[in-house]
Design goal:
heterodimer, A: ABC transporter involved in vitamin B12 uptake, BtuC, 2 strands, globular, B: about 300 residues, mainly alpha, ABC transporter involved in vitamin B12 uptake, BtuC
C-alpha cells in the first residue's frame, strides 16, 4: 500500500476520462463532442511527453499521426485479400502504425536530436510537408489520390461490425490511448527518465556535465511521443474516417492544436493536456457554432498572452496556488 | 535539347534565387542579432503579397511602389510584435520565442483570411518579356531580381556605413560590451527585428512576380521551409550568407526539377519540395554552420 500514492495523480486524469465516457454514453447527442474532446486530450497528452518534458518543440509532430494513419490504411488495404486474418488485420494495423511512426521518429530524431533549441525546431518544421511531398511526388501509397478503405473494412468485419468500429470502438480506443499516454507520462515522471528530462529541460549543459546521457533520454521521450501519435492517427483518423489523403494527415494545423493544448494546460504537467484539451476542445466547439471560422484567430493571440504572461499554463498556476494544501499531490 | 532545357531552367533559377535570398535576409538578420528564430516567417511574406495585391488590384498602384509600402508595413508590424511580445521573451527559454513567432504567423494568416478570404488570388503586371533563346524571362521577374540585389546592397551599405548599422553589428559581436560602450542594446534589438520583418514583408512583393495566381493567406508555410533551408545554407545568422544561399537554392530547385521531370511516373514539383527538406536535414547533420560560412 505504501507504493500506491506514487501513482495517485493519475486519479483526476482517469476520473476526467471516465466522466467524459459516461456523459457520452448516457446523454443524447453528446457522443460527438466527447469524442472530439478525448481526441484533443489524447493529442495533448502524447505531444506533451516530448515537448512538455524536454522543452523542445517539434513543429512536424503531425507527421507521426500521419504515419500512423498510413500504417492502419496500408494494413487494411493490402491485407484485405487474406480473409483468414479477419479482425487481426486491425491489430496488425496498430502494430504497423506504431512501427512506422517509430521508424520516422528514429530517422528524424537521428538528425534533429543532435541539434539544440532553435536548430531542432528548424529541422522538424519541414518533416510533415517533406513527407507529404515525398508521398505525392514519388506516388508511393497511391500518391496524392490517397486511399479510401470503407469497402475493405466492410469486407473484413462485415457491414455492421465495421460501422460499430467507426462510430463506437474507435472512440473507445482513443480513450485507451489517452489513458495510456497519461500513464506513460506519470511513469516517466516518477522514474529516472523524468528526472533526467527535467534536468535537461532546465539546463542541458549542466545535465550533461552531471553525467546524464541527454541524447538517450531525448530519444526515449521523442520515440514514445511519436509512437503514441502513431496509435492516435491509426484510431482517430484511419478507423474513425476510413480514408487517408496526404494533405489532410500532414496538415500543420494539428501541430498548432497540440501546441495550444499543451501550453494552455501547462507544458510538462500530467494534468495539463487534459485541462488544455477540455478548454480548447470546448471553446473550439462552441466557437464553431457561434463564430464559425474564427477559432484560430482567437487562439493565436491567446497563446501569445499565455507565453508572455502565464508561461506555466492553467495547471502550472493551480500548482502554485495549491502548494502546501491537501490537493497538492493530485496536481502534477 | 536536355542541356538547353537545363540551361533555361538554371537561368530562371538564378533569377528566382536572388529573390529567395532577399526573402531570407530578414530571417537571418533577426536570428543573427536577437537569436530568435522567426517560425512565422512565411506569414510575413504572405502579408507582403497581399499588400501588393491590394495596391495593384484595388488602387492600380505599381508593384514597384508596393516594395517601400510593404517595407513600412513590415517595420510597423515588427515594432508592434517586438514591443508587445519579443522584448519580454528575449531572456526566456527558446521555446517561448519559437511558440510566440509561430503564433504571430497564425494570427496574421487568420487576420488576412478574415479580410481577404481564403481563395487563391493573383494579379497580372504586364511589362513585357525578353526572349533569351533557351528560355523566356518576363520583365517582372527581372525587376524582382534587380530589386532583390539592390535591397541586398542597400542593407550591406547600411550595416557598414551608418551609425545604427555599426551599433547593431557591435551588439551581434558582444551585447554586454556594446551596453558598456553606451549603445542602446534594446533599441538595436527593436531596430533589427523590425528591419528584419520589413525586409521579409518587402520580399513578399517581389515573390508575387513568380506566382501568377498563388496568393493565399496560407501560402507562407512553403516559404518558411524554403527560407530555413536557405538560411541554414548561408549559416543562419548572416544576411549575406542568406542571399547567396538563396542563389544556390534557386539553382538546386530549378535544376532538380528538370532532372525529376525525366523520371517517369513521379510528380517533379512535389519531389523538389521533398528535396529541399532533405537538403535541410543533410546540412544540419554535416555542417550546421552552413556550407557557405568561411569558418
Amino acid at each position: 500500500m505504501k507504493q500506491l500514492p506514487k501513482y495517485l495523480p493519475l486519479a483526476p486524469v482517469f476520473a476526467a476520462y471516465v466522466v467524459m465516457f459516461l456523459i457520452a454514453e448516457n446523454m443524447e447527442g453528446m457522443w460527438q463532442l466527447m469524442s472530439m474532446l478525448l481526441f484533443y486530450c489524447a493529442l495533448g497528452q502524447a505531444f506533451n511527453v516530448f515537448m512538455g518534458m524536454t522543452g523542445y518543440v517539434d513543429f512536424g509532430y503531425v507527421a507521426f499521426l500521419g504515419m500512423g494513419t498510413y500504417g492502419m490504411a496500408l494494413s487494411i488495404t493490402r491485407l484485405v485479400q487474406y480473409e483468414f486474418l479477419g479482425v487481426w488485420i486491425i491489430v496488425i494495423g496498430f502494430a504497423l502504425a506504431m512501427v512506422m511512426s517509430t521508424l520516422l521518429s528514429m530517422a528524424v530524431g537521428a538528425v534533429a536530436l543532435r541539434l539544440r533549441g532553435a536548430y531542432f525546431a528548424i529541422a522538424t518544421i519541414g518533416v510533415n510537408e517533406g513527407f507529404r511531398f515525398l508521398i505525392e511526388g514519388a506516388r508511393i501509397w497511391n500518391g496524392s489520390e490517397g486511399m479510401i478503405f470503407t469497402a475493405d473494412l466492410n469486407t473484413i468485419l462485415g457491414r455492421e461490425a465495421a460501422a460499430a468500429l467507426c462510430t463506437y470502438w474507435a472512440d473507445i480506443m482513443v480513450l485507451v490511448i489517452a489513458a495510456l499516454a497519461a500513464s506513460v507520462t506519470l511513469f516517466y515522471m516518477r522514474t529516472k527518465v523524468g528526472y533526467a528530462l527535467t534536468a535537461l529541460r532546465e539546463d542541458e549543459d549542466a545535465a550533461k556535465v552531471m553525467g546524464i546521457n541527454v541524447t538517450k533520454f531525448k530519444i526515449i521521450a521523442f520515440i514514445t511521443s511519436a509512437s503514441l501519435a502513431g496509435l492516435l492517427g491509426a484510431t482517430a483518423w484511419a478507423l474513425k474516417t476510413p480514408y487517408v489523403f496526404p494533405p489532410e494527415v500532414f496538415e500543420i494545423h494539428y501541430t498548432i492544436e497540440a501546441i495550444i493544448i499543451a501550453m494552455l494546460g501547462g507544458a510538462g504537467t500530467l494534468l495539463g493536456p487534459v485541462v488544455g484539451g477540455l478548454v480548447y476542445g470546448l471553446s473550439k466547439y462552441y466557437l464553431s457554432i457561434f463564430l464559425p471560422g474564427f477559432q484560430l484567430l482567437i487562439f493565436a493571440p491567446v497563446i501569445l498572452v499565455i507565453i508572455v504572461l502565464f508561461p506555466e499554463g492553467i495547471v502550472g498556476m493551480l500548482k502554485a496556488r495549491t502548494k502546501g494544501t491537501g490537493v497538492e499531490r493530485f496536481i502534477v | 535539347m536536355f542541356f538547353e532545357q537545363l540551361g533555361g531552367n538554371l537561368i530562371q533559377g538564378v533569377v528566382l534565387g536572388a529573390v529567395y535570398g532577399m526573402a531570407t535576409m530578414g530571417l537571418s538578420l533577426i536570428f543573427g542579432v536577437l537569436k530568435v528564430v522567426n517560425v512565422g516567417h512565411g506569414a510575413f511574406i504572405m502579408v507582403g503579397a497581399f499588400v501588393t495585391l491590394f495596391l495593384f488590384s484595388s488602387l492600380g498602384i505599381s508593384p514597384i511602389i508596393a516594395v517601400p509600402v510593404a517595407f513600412m508595413v513590415g517595420m510597423g508590424l515588427g515594432l508592434i510584435f517586438y514591443y508587445t511580445t519579443i522584448r519580454k521573451l528575449i531572456k526566456a527559454p527558446e521555446l517561448a520565442t519559437l511558440l510566440a513567432t509561430f503564433s504571430m504567423g497564425v494570427l496574421l494568416e487568420e487576420l488576412v483570411k478574415l479580410v481577404f478570404g481564403s481563395e487563391f488570388r493573383g494579379y497580372n503586371w504586364e511589362v513585357g518579356k525578353i526572349d533569351l533563346g533557351i528560355t523566356v524571362l518576363p520583365m517582372a521577374k527581372l525587376y524582382a531580381c534587380a530589386g532583390s540585389i539592390l535591397i541586398a546592397v542597400l542593407l550591406f551599405l547600411w550595416f557598414k556605413k551608418t551609425r545604427a548599422g555599426s551599433a547593431v553589428r557591435s551588439v551581434v559581436e558582444d551585447s554586454e560590451g556594446a551596453r558598456v560602450c553606451g549603445i542602446n542594446v534594446g533599441g538595436a534589438y527593436a531596430l533589427s527585428f523590425s528591419l528584419g520583418i520589413g525586409l521579409t514583408v518587402a520580399s513578399g512583393v517581389l515573390l508575387t512576380m513568380f506566382i501568377p495566381v498563388g496568393i493565399n493567406p496560407y501560402m507562407g508555410g512553403g516559404y518558411t521551409l524554403k527560407a530555413f533551408v536557405i538560411a541554414v545554407l548561408g549559416g543562419l545568422s548572416s544576411p549575406y550568407g542568406a542571399f547567396f544561399g538563396g542563389l544556390v537554392f534557386g539553382l538546386i530547385e530549378n535544376g532538380s526539377y528538370t532532372l525529376f521531370a525525366y523520371i517517369p511516373g513521379v510528380e517533379p514539383f512535389a519531389l523538389t519540395r521533398f528535396l529541399s527538406f532533405v537538403i535541410l536535414l543533410v546540412i544540419l547533420l554535416i555542417r550546421p554552420t552552413g556550407i557557405l560560412s568561411a569558418k
